[in-house]
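Extended Data, panel c. Modelled sequence:
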Amino acid sequence: MAAEMKQAIYVQADLAFEADRVRLINEAIGAWGQLDVLVNNAGISRVIPHSDLASATSAVWHELNEINVVAPFHLVALAESALRDAARYRRAGSVVNISSHAGVRPKGASIPYAVSKAALNHMTRLLAVSLGPDIRVNAVAPGLVDTPLTAEWTGAQELWRDRAPMRRAASPDDIAKAVAMLVDSDYLTGEILLSDGGLNLT
């Protein structure tokens, strides 16, 4: 994708490691001399039945919390100065966290996953209060998204076809457009945009 876009760069990083987070932000700022938008899209999940408490080990909790909560916070902290500079010279900096409907409703692949996304949602609101008006912070909380990862999730696919008012899962483009809308706004902050095709209404 980066090769198809003339002014894009690709930086590989494992957000489980603090050094990679630092390098990622530094290389982005180094390449462009500024940072206007940060989208925290990296995340992991573990599928564990909610009733199987024994399988939700401390290691699982630590792994999900590190990637889904600590890493986004650390990236915002690293990018804060550059995002504030955006407000001084152009418009407010923008952070968009990719959460999940599992962080809004008592659902999700596992309890540790759902809790990590609920924490990300609350962190989004706390950061919006702390960083405004120079930096806006919002989140998109998708439901099921059609990707290679979810292609064999037949139960979830049937659920969205049968119960969601839109009668389908989201496409990656649907979520990208929701992110772009939040970035484009000069006023919205602290919002958790539930993007699940209306399944939450049923």
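The mean pLDDT is 94. This feature is highlighted in the accompanying rendering.
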